[in-house]
Amino acid sequence: MTIGPSPEDEPVAEGTRAVATAAKGNLLTTLVAMLWLYGGRGVGMLWTVVLLSQLGVSDYGLYGMAFALSAVIGPPLDNPYVVRSMRESEERFVAERASRFLVGLTLVAAGTALVGVSYIAWFGLTVAGGEIAYKSYSSRFARDGKADRVWRLDSIRQVVSVALACVYLFGVDHPTLLGASALYVAPYYVILVLAALEARGHRPQLPGPPRLTLALVGEMLGTALYLQGDVLLLGFLTDSRTAGYYTLCWTVAAALAAVGQSFGMTYHEPLRLSGGKLSSGPPLKLTLAIGGLSTAAVAIFGVVLLLTPAPTELAVAMIIISLFTGMRTMISILQVILYAQRRDILRLTANMGLVPVKLGAVAALAPIGAVGASIASVGADAILLAIYATAIYRKPTT
Length: 398
Description:
398 residues; mainly alpha; 13 helices; 83% helix; 0% strand; globular
C-alpha cells in the first residue's frame, strides 16, 4: 500500500505549484503597478478638485467633453498596436512601434493647428496623439508584462502635467481653462521626442493586414463610443454641470477598474507563448476577487458622499457606478485572454453592437441626469461581461 502521492501525481502537483507561484508574482507586480497608478490617479483627482475650485463645474464639464473626444479618437487608432504588440513577433513589434509613433505625432500636429479654433478639438486631438506617443514609448514594458514600469512612466507624466497646470491656476489672478490645459499637455511634446528616439532605425509598418486593422480600430471605436460617448451625449441632452457629475463618477470608476488592465498585462508573455491557452492566463478566482474589491471600494466612497453635503445626484450615481467598476475590471482582464486567442471579431461585434444599446439607454434616462447614465453603464457592461465570460469559459458541446 502506497502512502502519499504517486509518481504520476508529481507533475500535476508541480504544475499547480508553478501556477500558484506565477500568480503570486503577477499579483506582486500588479500591486507595485497599482501603487504607481493610484499615485498618478491621486494626482489626477487632485487636478479634478483644483479645476472645480478654480474654474467651476461648467469649465470642468467642458474639459470632460474634450477629454471624452480624445478617448473617442485616440484608443481606436491605437488599438491595433495594443493588441498586436502583446502577441506578434519581435520583428513585427519594432516595425509597428515606429508607425505607432507617427500616428501620435500626426494627431498632436493636427491638434496644435486647431488651438485657436476649438478648445474641444485642440485638447482632444493633442491628448489623443500624446497618449499614443506615450504608449509607443512604453510598449516594450507592456509587451513584456511589466505593468509596474508602464504605470511608473504614466504617473511621472501625470505629476508633471498637473504640477505645471496648478502653478498657473494658483499663480495668476484670472486663470482660464485654455491656459491651464496648454500647460497640462506640454509634457506630451517631450514624450514625442523620447518616442522618436525609440522608433528610429526601424522601418514603419502598418499593424497587420487592412481588414484586421479595420476590425481592431472598429472594436476600440465601439469601446470608445461605448465608454465616452455617454459623456458627450449626456452633456448635449442636459448641461455641462450634469456632464461634470457623471465625468467625476466615471473618473473614479476608471481609476479603480484600471487594476484589471494591469493584472491582465502581467500575463502578456505567458499568453503569447502559449497561444492564448486559458491555463496560462489569469485565474478565474483572482479575476472575481479583484472585481469584487473594486466594486466595494467605489460603493463605500459613494456612501460616504451620501453622508456629506455633496450633491445627492453625484452620491447616488457614484454608488450605482460601483457595479460598473467591478464589471469593467473583470472585462479588462478577460479581454487580454481574447487578445491572445485572436478572437478579434468577437470583441468587435460585442463592442459595436452595444453602442446603440447603451447610448439609447442614456438618452432614455437623461431626465434623471448622472444617475440615469450610471444605470445605463451598469446594464450595458453586464451584457458585455456575460458575452466575454461565455466565450472564454463555456465548455464546447460534444
